[in-house]
From TrEMBL:
This is ABC transporter ATP-binding protein. Residues 7-235 form the ABC transporter domain. It comes from Ramlibacter pallidus. SMART domains: AAA (SM00382). CDD domains: ABC_TM1139_LivF_branched. InterPro entries: AAA+_ATPase, ABC_transporter-like_ATP-bd, ABC_transporter-like_CS, BCAA_Transport_ATP-bd_LivF, P-loop_NTPase. It holds the Pfam family ABC_tran.
Length: 235
């Protein structure tokens, strides 16, 4: 694993209006790593993802993406640093076909996956290419939401609750996808409520509570941290 940092967050505070949600978040993600951000609902995990891409209100602190300070950048400029964000709500356009949804985001960097490569990774999407967004199952919508950012050329992927509410066979397919992307050198941050999904995939784990990182540990330290995870997550 390369020790080169893709993402370095230091002293990050974020607000929604008057609500102060993040209280000095510190975390780093090395190139080619899969990092899981764990915590109960309301701990600040999704807000951390949204703050990275500039979708919260006021932000204070430092967010460095491949060494470039992004704390003051608008979302479209953050995207051009090679960041792809897959939000929990998926954002599939109902009136567009699956393939039209796939082609919608602009290319932000060279090296994005071709449509053929994406269909090779997600055969279901090839079969449903002409189907409108409303006709896709939840699993197909989630695959499409992930596939859409792969075409853009983003190499840092922020994936928010991609396994939520999906059938086990689809969750297994998404886990295989993450392993494939890691093998291709992508850097991935997972926000997951489903600990059993995240546990075997992540190189390192951060645990959040009340808008702060409270624990950090590596994959090889997982077993000895299960008691702590039970306390914080109820897993």
């Amino acid at each position: 694993m390369s020790a080169q940092e893709t993402l370095n967050i230091s002293g990050l505070h974020a607000w929604y209006g008057e609500s102060h949600v993040l209280h000095g978040v510190d975390m780093r993600v090395n190139e080619g790593e899969v990092v899981a951000l764990l915590g109960r609902n309301g701990a600040g995990r999704t807000t951390t993802m949204r703050a990275i891409v500039g979708l919260t209100g006021a932000r204070k602190g430092s967010i460095r993406i491949r060494g470039e300070e992004a704390i003051k950048l608008p979302p479209h400029r953050v995207a051009k640093l090679g960041v792809g964000y897959c939000p929990e709500e998926r954002g599939i356009f109902a009136s567009l076909s699956a393939e039209e949804n796939l082609m919608l985001p602009p290319e932000i960097a060279q090296g994005g996956m071709s449509v053929a490569e994406i269909y090779d990774m997600f055969p279901n999407l090839k079969e449903r290419a002409a189907s409108p967004g409303t006709r896709l199952s939840g699993g197909e919508q989630q695959m499409l939401a992930v596939a859409r950012i792969l075409r853009t050329g983003a190499r840092l992927l922020l994936l928010d609750e991609i396994s939520e509410g999906l059938a086990p066979v689809i969750v297994q397919k998404l886990a295989e996808t993450i392993r494939t992307l890691k093998a291709k050198g992508y850097t991935i941050v997972l926000v997951e409520q489903n600990f059993r999904f995240a546990a075997p995939l992540a190189d390192r784990f951060y645990v959040m509570e009340h808008g702060r990182i409270v624990r950090e540990f590596a994959q090889h330290e997982l077993r000895e941290n299960m008691g702590m995870l039970q306390e914080y997550l109820g897993v």
